[in-house]
Amino acid sequence: MDAVSDPTVETIELEITAALASLREAFLPRFRAAATAQALRDENAKILGKKGELTAILKLLGKAPPEGRKAIGEKVNALKQEVESGFESCLSNLRLREREAELSAPPFDLTLPARVPAQVGHKHPISIVREEVVAVFRQLGFAVFDGPEVEHEGNNFTALGFPPDHPATDMQDSFWTQSNHVLRTHTSNIQVRAMKSIAPPMAFIAPGTVYRRDDDATHSPMFHQIEAFLVDKDVTLAHLKGVLAEFAERLFGPGTPVRLRPSYFPFVEPGAEVDIGCVFCKQPNGTRAGCSLCKHTGFIEVLGCGMIHPVVFENCGIDPEVFSGFALGMGLERLAMLRYGVPNIKLMFDNDPRFLAQF
Ligand code: PHE
Fold first, then answer.
1. pLDDT digits 0-9 by tens, 190-202
2. What is the reported pTM?
């Protein structure tokens, strides 16, 4: 059969040529009408996509006679390239316009509030209690004294009257560095540092992180303490008791009872543990009914204290015949657990937002 005389072949050739011509006229105005890069891509897909107009023309090509296919195919490809380069140049024009609009737009106000208000952060319970304790002592005239967490054995133990074989100095109880420094086991190292460097009178408070090889529901290998100490002439146990009574009232509320129980720390004499009226079973009339948390005594232990030992004064170059003083130290986790009724110390360190959001 003669291809040229076949009407369908001629029709297809004509059809393709007409379609190519009308597409050639239309595609650039269509691209230019697109206002955004996305609209431009959509328009491009309508032409070159799988179901696009030019793709449809390409399919018609299969029906064209083999000898005519090459010439028509070249025309189709030429238009395809025109469309592609038209698309690219329109796209870069659009980008340029977008960039210019951005540059000449009023500046973006970074201080505007978010549309959905973000959750505001807040203080950790340990920080809350630390700030309150520090505030109470500052009101009483104490100033803050800071010191290192990696400490010389002397400042942490020896100058405080710990004998070399005291269990606290043992590897089992304390963390030692390879260069024989100790992670301070209490904030009492600050007493030594202050008394070695400043002449009395002095009254300091020292909040800080301390470390011990302890790990259970009420002990953590890292925890926080606050130390307070005062050195002057004629300081007595009565001054210590007065400061403790004031501290208990200001932190736990008016009328909070305080009692001292004799106890031993190498760096004080006499030494005592301090209990305050139980915060859990306090009655409206101020009495304590007794509960499991205070083991039905009505009192809860909060800190250790005592009169600074003469040997400690001597070790720090202060004459114990002239000066006397008191010291006290408390664990912040314990205070926070009492204050908020937290049963396990681990909650303080887990950083679980469900716990932290409650303070
Ligand atoms: N440093 C003691 C401790 O960590 C507490 C304390 C401080 C006791 C000051 C007496 C005086 O247990």
1. 999 999 999 999 9
2. 0.69
